[in-house]
Amino acid sequence: MIIKPKVRGFVCVTAHPTGCSAHIQQQIDYVKSKGPIQSGPKKVLVIGSSTGFGLGSRITAAFGSGAATLGIFFERPSEEGRPATPGWYNTIAFTKAAHAAGLYAKNINGDAFSDDIKKQALENITKDLGQVDLVVYSLASPRRQHPRTGAVHKSTLQPIGAPYTNKTVDTDKGIVSEVTIQPADEAGIADTIAVMGGEDWEMWMQALGDAKLLAPGATAVAYSYIGPVHTWPIYKDGTIGRAKIDLERAAKAIDAKLKATVGGRAFISVNKALVTQASSAIPVVPLYISILYKVMKAKGIHEATIEQMQRLFATQLYNGNQPKFDSEGRVRVDDWEMRDDVQAEVSKIWPQCTTENLAALTDIAGYRTEFLKMFGFGLPGIDYDAEVEPHLPML
Length: 395
Ligand SMILES: NC(=O)c1ccc[n+]([C@@H]2O[C@H](COP(=O)([O-])OP(=O)(O)OC[C@H]3O[C@@H](n4cnc5c(N)ncnc54)[C@H](O)[C@@H]3O)[C@@H](O)[C@H]2O)c1
Description:
Layout: E1 7-8, E2 11-12, H1 17-33, E3 43-47, H2 52-65, E4 68-73, H3 86-100, E5 105-109, H4 115-129, E6 132-137, E7 143-145, E8 152-154, E9 164-170, E10 175-181, H5 186-196, H6 199-210, E11 214-224, H7 239-262, E12 265-270, H8 285-298, H9 305-317, E13 331-332, H10 340-349, H11 358-361, H12 364-374
Parallel strand pairs: 3-4, 3-6, 4-5, 6-11, 11-12, 12-13
Antiparallel strand pairs: 1-2, 7-8, 9-10
Helix pairs in contact: 1-2, 1-3, 2-3, 2-9, 5-7, 6-7, 8-10, 8-12
Bound molecules: nicotinamide-adenine-dinucleotide.
């Protein structure tokens, strides 16, 4: 099959297996180039391991610290005439590379919110790893079926209290326009908290703790975002922001339990705004990211998910370092994004942006390159006109 990108709005409905594999190799090479992370994790459970920050965490743990990893994700395999999702190909490429390096890597594809997938993960850890010393919780999902009530909750990306109007960009067509998003009602807020809040993370940690699968001193980390005032109505102060407040509540509860039971720790890392499948679906945010990339690249401080996760592990979690917490007890690897000089320039560019000057004032080209790369396109050394086997079995 010859596979080309097919972009539909904010998703690409195709993915290239050898391109995804090359993308994984780039990330592995980056982690290796930074040298070993001392006293790093050895046995790691990554929930949401196939793309974005979870994938970056898994690669960093494996190739920075030689960790055994169990990855949980929800990806679609290939079908007749249709390639698999990128996370499917990413995971196969990661697993092959880990095995070639003599590292343990196993995978469970299914709904992490369900009891069944938790049970499978627990059985796997009991059998193969004994215990885990790091749990990374990095799910980004539009829906969750609650394992107790059976109710299906759908998360929304909406403001709260009043409609929100701001500039946005159609990243595919390069058109800047105004968008107005209606506020969520109470049910929408509650549903988003049910999907993206902390209850499921707590369920995972409770199940692992009850089964005595958490090693002494175990760490648990989940990821959040805050960002600048431009995006607060749709992010920090919107439905997703409420879910993140709940995730922070869960971090504190999990932290207290871990401290009391295994002498461990749990916290939130606030990460930088980056092109991922999750963030490209948020209105306004892709325009902000395009401006941010322009500013941060000009200052030589741009990072992608792998650089962010390598920095988190190497400078905050391990290597003899202790996490440096903000006043709310969070680790901040969004520190460079939030620098005053960076945000001052973003604020200067933001009001000037139009369809006509988008290419000059923002890094929309860089946004598109990163976006396509997530699906395995635009990688050097790949012949995209050549036939490629799309049907790869999960390892
Ligand atoms: N992208 C950003 O700019 C940004 C910034 C800061 C924090 N974050 C946070 O980082 C976390 C990860 O987001 P991302 O951007 O890396 O997202 P992503 O879409 O790249 O990754 C999501 C992962 O979750 C998995 N997943 C989704 N639903 C699942 C389910 N039901 N069962 C099992 N696996 C499932 C996917 O397979 C994938 O591995 C989120 O909490 C997000 O809010 C993102």
